[in-house]
Design a protein that fits this description.
The chain is built from 14 helices and 17 strands. The protein is an alpha/beta fold. It has two domains: 386 residues, TIM Barrel (Alpha-Beta Barrel), CATH 3.20.20.80; 82 residues, Immunoglobulin-like, CATH 2.60.40. It has an eight-stranded parallel beta barrel. The protein has a five-stranded antiparallel beta sheet with strand order 10-11-12-17-14, with helices on one face. Strand 5, helix 12 and strand 6 form a beta-alpha-beta unit.
């Protein structure tokens, strides 16, 4: 196996600048002396960052070793060891048996030779993105940043580059906000199908890469999705939890991300004491930096207000009084790059953005670059289309808040996770609303030349005046009428595309 500086046996002899025990002591000292203590009462003082509620949209980046096989999805590192999924046989036919060619053997092939952080961030900026969320470490255990606690990282192997640092530098140059995601928690059991047959997961030389790969009845591949969703199911060991805490705090200290994102398993009961310590440490460090920060979480990992709730590949059906976020991907079947992935249209993503913002949320939209560091043409096209649309209509997105109702019409999102597969069949009768500085922004989700907004009909109880209406991006003078049925607008100009229209309405 190729390494950038040293061979494996020299690497494992390297001593971290600070031991796990020393870092744990530091964490306790910071929390004892800081504003935030490691308890929910203190952590409930946390406020959602004002910049985050203003900016509304960020880009998620799933990029790692799994981009090399480019098959199935970003869970290839697990699937290749699971006899019940298609990745298993694909791996054997393409690369060889798992005891001869394991996941580790993809690392030298992950060269990232065309990765250019300046080009990436420039594209994100053109797309109207405001914050950037690289996955610092996915479930596979390979870190995309320089860390003293994980020898298996992109600075020492594979690309031999600190990916997170390069993105951070460009974000700072181009005025975007760096965030980071870590999925380290799930690595505790992630590779465990490899325990059930002759594979390199069982080779003790690579234990520090594959992790404990804990196998038990509760972590069996056939039931793991159900059992790990249970807060009270089997948890992680103390050793693992302390290691997880230290690694996460090191990521915080080295890169100062403005949002820290976690996947699902941190909701498990065993993580609770460590989540309190982590949140307090992160928020206290942010006080030192003079930054507003937050944590993204799923399920019931944190109480409300301590962090920011995230809905994976889904949405809410109404306005949430507590700020929230959707994370979803342009790719329909995988977060990471795969050769046969299918992609959403720009229209679908834009409609999702408008719907989410109208309900008091943010959109984190994911891309999955190829192993060489290039972004797919399909994702690039969607991002650029979003950027052109936001140049015209961003006034109704950035810096807005929710109105008294999120919209009107029959079409709505399904509640909960993993509901984003099919594009919603919005019609010209479906609208979404946002509000800012005395103006109501009404988005017609399927554009037409005749617009009827029933919510803005005349003589509703406690009526308000409508002083003017304009169509963002148009010089056309907008004439409107109101009666007891609707506010009616008839456009003279031809429609250029099928993307949502945004009407800026002065109300009094």
């Amino acid at each position: 196996m190729h390494y950038c500086w040293y061979n494996y046996f020299i690497l494992i002899g390297l001593v971290a600048q600070m031991t796990t025990g020393e870092y744990l002591k530091l964490i306790d000292e910071v929390n004892e002396n800081g504003k935030y203590k490691a308890d929910w009462e203190s952590l409930s003082q946390h406020k959602v960052p004002s910049w985050y509620m203003h900016d509304k949209i960020g880009v998620f980046i799933h990029w790692g070793i799994y981009s090399v096989p480019a098959f199935g999805n970003e869970w290839y590192s697990r699937g290749m060891y699971d006899k019940d999924v298609r990745e298993f046989e694909h791996h054997r036919k393409t690369w060889g048996p798992q005891d001869k060619f394991g996941y580790k053997d993809f690392i030298p092939m992950f060269k990232a030779e065309k990765f250019d952080a300046e080009k990436w961030v420039s594209l994100f900026k053109k797309a109207g993105m405001k914050y950037v969320m690289p996955v610092a470490e996915h479930h596979d255990g390979f870190a995309m940043y320089d860390t003293e606690f994980n020898l298996w990282n992109s600075t020492r192997m594979g690309p031999c580059r600190d990916v997170v640092s390069e993105i951070k530098t460009e974000c700072e140059k181009q005025g975007l906000t760096l965030c980071a995601s870590t999925h380290r928690a799930e690595h505790y059991f992630f590779m465990n199908p490899g325990r059930l047959f002759d594979s390199d997961v069982n080779d003790e030389k690579y234990r520090d890469f594959y992790g404990p790969a804990v196998y038990s009845e509760e972590f069996d591949p056939k039931v793991i999705h159900k059992t790990t969703a249970d807060t009270y199911s089997q948890g992680a060991s103390q050793e693992w939890l302390e290691d997880w805490l230290v690694r996460t705090c090191e990521l915080v200290d080295k890169y100062q991300p403005s949002v820290l994102y976690f996947d699902w398993w941190i909701h498990n009961h065993s993580f609770k004491p460590y989540l309190k310590k982590l949140a307090a440490y992160y928020y206290n460090r942010a006080e030192e930096w003079g930054k507003e920060v937050t944590i993204n979480y799923k399920h019931e990992a944190f109480p409300p207000n301590v962090a920011t709730f995230d809905v994976e590949r889904g949405a809410l059906t109404g306005i949430s009084p507590i700020y929230w976020q959707t994370d979803t991907a342009i790719g329909k079947h995988s977060w990471g790059y795969t050769a046969d992935n299918k992609y959403k249209s720009a229209r679908q993503v834009i409609c999702d953005l408008v719907d989410i913002v109208s309900k008091n949320g943010n959109l984190l939209i994911n891309i999955g670059p190829k192993a060489d560091g290039t972004i797919t043409n399909e994702e690039t096209e969607v991002l650029l289309t979003m950027g052109e649309w936001l140049k015209i209509n961003g006034e109704g997105i950035y810096g807005t808040t929710f109105w008294k109702q999120f919209g009107e019409g029959k079409v709505n999102a399904k509640d909960g996770f993993f509901q984003d597969g099919d594009e919603k069949n919005f019609t010209n009768k479906d609208f979404r609303f946002t509000y800012k500085d005395g103006f109501l922004y009404a988005f017609q989700m399927r554009p037409s030349k005749t617009i009827k907004i029933k919510t803005l009909r005349k003589h509703i109880p406690h009526d308000y005046l409508i002083e003017s209406v304009e169509l963002l991006g148009s010089d056309e003078k907008i004439n409107f009428t109101r009666d007891e049925k609707a506010l009616t607008i008839k456009l003279k100009s031809e429609l250029e595309n099928d993307l949502p229209l945004c009407f800026k309405i002065a109300i009094g």
